[in-house]
Write a structure and sequence with these properties.
By secondary structure, this protein is α/β, with parallel strands linked by helices. It folds into three domains: about 1-80, Winged helix-like DNA-binding domain superfamily/Winged helix DNA-binding domain (Arc Repressor Mutant, subunit A, Orthogonal Bundle); about 85-150 and about 260-285, Periplasmic binding protein-like II (D-Maltodextrin-Binding Protein, domain 2), CATH 3.40.190; about 155-260, Periplasmic binding protein-like II (D-Maltodextrin-Binding Protein, domain 2). Helix content is about 40%, strand content about 25%. The chain has helices spanning about 1-10, 15-20, 25-40, 55-80, 95-110, 125-130, 160-170, 215-225, 235-245, 275-285; strands at about 45, 50, 85-90, 115-120, 135-140, 145-160, 185, 195-200, 200-205, 210-215, 230-235, 245-250, 260-265. The strands form four sheets. Strands 3, 4, 5, 6, 11, 12 and 13 form a seven-stranded mixed beta sheet that branches. Strands 1-2 form a two-stranded antiparallel ribbon. Strand 3 (about 85-90), helix 5 and strand 4 (about 115-120) form a beta-alpha-beta unit. The longest helix has 26 residues, at about 55-80.
Length: about 290
Amino acid sequence: MEVFNRVVELGGFSAAARAFHMTPSAVSKLVGRLESRLEVRLLNRSTRQIQLTPEGCVFYERSVKVLADLEEAERSAATKDAPRGRLCVNTNVPFGEHFLLPLVPEFLARHPDITLDVVLTDEVVDILEQRADVAVRAGPLKSSRLLARKLGATRMVIVGAPAYLERQGMPMHPVDLERHNRLGFNYARAMEGWPLLDQGHTINVATIGNAQVSNGEALRRLALAGVGLARLAAFQVKDDVAAGRLQTVLEDFNPGDLEEVHAVFLGQGGHLPSRVRALLDFLVEKVDLG
């Protein structure tokens, strides 16, 4: 079962063989024996790729839970249920910079047998492909087999540096944005434009500027440098606004939309390794996006 799961997650017999220090033929034989025992085909094989059959999808999803239960039972018996082991976390850059990384010392002090493996990126990654235990995602969640715990929600604000606003002028109405440099993101899932209220109706102002970046912290740095205006999560710029490094603009036209932040993961609540549960509970306890 474990070998079969690794074949699915790594996308082939050769990759799974390397992970288990086996030969591809040995891995193929193990999967074949599993199919013979179940009397059903789990994988469709070709020279270039493998694909789960419908029966294979069902078996894979259930076997993930079975193996998680087994791992948890072994760990509980050996460590009296103390969370331990490597915990792989994938988070968007703003959340990682402002929340996760500052909280790491306290989390590791509370759980000294856990080793964190943290990746910061604003790209949405495939948890299975990246072998992440938990991923933190901002914005609406797409329908998937992943489960989620909500960590909070944050307002979105448009900000600019005082030097930029002095140079270009303070926008007083959404139409004034036409003469401003509107900085944006360069990845495909980015929202197209900034929603603003005008006479009770929501309008969408396109982000047309001379710079696009791949993550929210890079966008914040450009705004701080006076390159242009940026629309960011309020928690990202709270300290900058308080210190006068950035100013909010067009707040009277802010639609008040909230960007939700979730921790997503595989498995069900009763089938989580204790290290994953420990992180989820810790984030829910500590994170305040208000």
